[in-house]
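Every protein is a chain of amino acids, and every chain bends into a shape of its own. Below is the pair of lines this work produces for a single protein:
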Amino acid sequence: MSGADKAGNAGDKIKGKAKEAVGKAVGNERLEAEGKADQVEGDVRQAGEKAKDAAKDVFGD
């Protein structure tokens, strides 16, 4: 997994946590849900990158 990919995935998760917190604070359920979705998207991308790395370790480039 490249450093840029890691940073992008972490950024999605951080952005999602912030959106979720703001949504909760102002009572905006849509913003809160978007934040949760951003976090899940970051997790899914991270899992995909880890799977690619594992495949490279097993099968080579």
Summary: The mean pLDDT is 90. The chain is about 90% helix and 0% strand. The two ends are 13 Å apart (CA to CA). The CA atoms of residues 22 and 33 lie 11 Å apart.
